[in-house]
Design goal:
The protein is of the alpha+beta class and about 200 residues long. The protein has one domain: tt1808, chain A. Helix content is about 20%, strand content about 35%. It contains four helices and 14 strands. The protein has a six-stranded mixed β-sheet with strand order 4-7-9-10-11-12, sandwiched between helices. A three-stranded antiparallel β-sheet has the order 1-3-2, with helices on one face. A three-stranded mixed β-sheet has the order 6-5-8, with no helix packed on it. It is globular, with a radius of gyration of 16 Å. About 30% of the residues are buried. Pfam families: Uma2. One of its GO terms (molecular function) is endonuclease activity. Keywords: Endonuclease, Hydrolase, Nuclease. InterPro entries: Nuclease_put_TT1808 (IPR012296), Restrct_endonuc-II-like (IPR011335), Uma2 (IPR008538). This is Uma2 family endonuclease.
């Protein structure tokens, strides 16, 4: 679902904050003057998110934490996302608000949803690069592949590496480990009519 909103940045974020979103849904600003509301994820999507979370937890740099609910609010480019997982310093996550600055985020990760795959593959790829988030990890259960984007410059990631599920993906420093993708879930034919 998409909500068209006023052009003013103040009005845009005010509308986002006042939107009555059903439990489990996510409201994000992915395109100009629009708020995108996405349905709750399916179980396979969430199991893959948890697999990522468990692996990153044991390889976090000192003083950093993982987050799966807070919003990254990018005032300078009028965008807002709620990643499936992101990593930022603990003090940045310990806020009395529901969003953090992209300046504090060192990695954002998304698991592609069948119902809105282009949001993760295209829209968020551009948003995270424009916000200069150093690493963007895209797990794609439709293509059964994992892509790590890195080295953002001038609004684009200049480098990336892709591996099929089952092959490891090297996550560079400050993490310094190989992500095991063998337990990531793919979406079967029975998932075609469901939202993820």
């Amino acid at each position: 679902m998409t909500v068209t909103t006023p052009d003013s940045a103040v009005d845009l974020f005010k509308t986002l904050d006042e939107l009555d979103v059903p439990r489990g849904y996510r409201a994000e600003i992915l395109r100009e003057a629009e708020i995108t509301v996405s349905p709750p994820p399916i179980g396979k999507h969430q199991r893959t998110v948890m697999e990522m979370l468990w692996q990153f937890q044991s390889h976090l740099p000192a003083g950093y934490g993982t987050e799966v609910h807070l919003e990254i609010r990018m005032h300078h480019i009028l965008k807002s996302t709620i990643p499936d997982l992101f990593v930022a310093p603990e003090p940045a996550l310990d806020v009395e608000d529901h969003f953090v600055s992209p300046d504090d985020v060192i990695l954002a990760a998304e698991v592609v949803s069948r119902s809105n795959a282009d949001n993760d593959r295209v829209a968020k790829l551009g948003i995270y690069a424009a916000a200069e988030i150093p690493l963007y990890l895209l797990v794609d259960p439709i293509k059964a592949s994992t892509t790590l984007y890195f080295s953002p410059e001038h609004g684009h990631y200049t480098e990336n590496v892709t591996a099929p599920f089952g092959k490891g993906v090297r996550i560079p420093e400050p993490f310094g480990f190989k992500l095991d993708t063998s337990r990531f879930r793919t979406y079967g034919r029975t998932d075609a009519a469901t939202h993820s």
